[in-house]
Amino acid sequence: MLGVGIYLVDVGAESWAEGGYAPLLDRALAERGLPPYPGPPPKTGDFEEKIVPSMDDFAELCERHGAADLLDASLIVPVDFAGLIEIPVETAYDDVTKVFSAQRLRAAVAPMAAEVGLPPGLPSGPLALTTAIDDPLLFYVALFSQAAGHSLRHACPLTYV
Prior knowledge:
Elements: E1 6-10, H1 13-19, H2 21-31, E2 48-51, H3 56-64, H4 69-72, E3 75-77, E4 85-87, E5 97-101, H5 102-116, H6 128-132, H7 136-154, E6 158-160
Parallel strand pairs: 3-5
Antiparallel strand pairs: 1-2, 1-6, 3-6, 4-5
């Protein structure tokens, strides 16, 4: 059960179908010459992390690595495309949804993980990183690394709630 705050969570098939993302994302993908995203499978896993610490150091790290676009994303999908795709679906935090590729997220975070010495074998499961990592920079590198992996492994999108 989610408490007060902002969370990064996976999007299940029912929420995806009701959210209005599918036709708009498919149209944007088609404009890029890409096939439609079929949507998440009925069971997506269980990804949930609370966005608690300051992102300032992580934002600087993203800038240094040329990955600042990922900070603007409000939806991560397991489709490979460059940059951000904007679709006209309002979120709780913006008047459009900004979509980022999970493949590109994984590629962007990999050198950051090496730079900060992200340890292997991080805990996983709901709120595992939120409760296990105190360092804000390490937390966000781990968060986005695991988010990309989860999206790709389970073929599901992730979004903020």
